[in-house]
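S.,

As promised, the pyroglutamic acid run. Input:
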Amino acid sequence: MKKILITGFEPFGGELINPALVAVNKLDGKIVHGCEIVTRTLPVVWQKSIQALCQAIDEINPIVVITVGQAGGRPDITIERVAVNVDDYRIPDNEGNQPIDEPIVAGGPVGYLSTLPLKTAVIDMRAKGIPASVSNTAGTFVCNHLFYGLMHHLNASANYCRGGFVHIPYLPEQAANHPGAPSMSLDTIVAALTIIAETAVTFRKDAKVTGGTIC
Ligand code: PCA
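Predicted complex:
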């Protein structure tokens, strides 16, 4: 059976849980349009995150890879459009690394675009009543690092495989410790990730609707 690889991250930055890990664990073994979801947990650690992901891709040989992380403070599901070739960590990662203004891949392209059907997935999530949007920055911490490493790996691979990154809000129990911060229920996050997986395996060409912003 064809496989969809979905990854979550360990908790970081003083949180006791990572909603990405909690949600991704709920998806393990699910069948989506005849494809099996396989999940992995990744460390919130600079180079080790990419190494663990690439090892999982080589072992599982998926047709789609969806990497997921927490974006505490964002109100909706955000599908990332672009990964940039820079690490600039505002806080140390889980092993104390804090690269500043270093390339992720020396000599690599400035950026990579997601190959998930972003716009279609946003349309599909909104149609099911789930707040979602395209994001034009995945930050410069481990999530962007992993996203860039994913796209660099897929770009160099002979097998075509779609991939991208999704940021999700805090769970309500986390937001309770961050007064005023938005949150989303676990069921809604799981439903959103399922829709993104469904969209990724069924759509060939993305919808031509805007997901842009004006500064
Ligand atoms: N979010 C962080 C890293 C791990 C995670 O879940 C980020 O946005 O970079």
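The chain has a mean pLDDT of 97. The chain has six helices and eleven strands.

- D.
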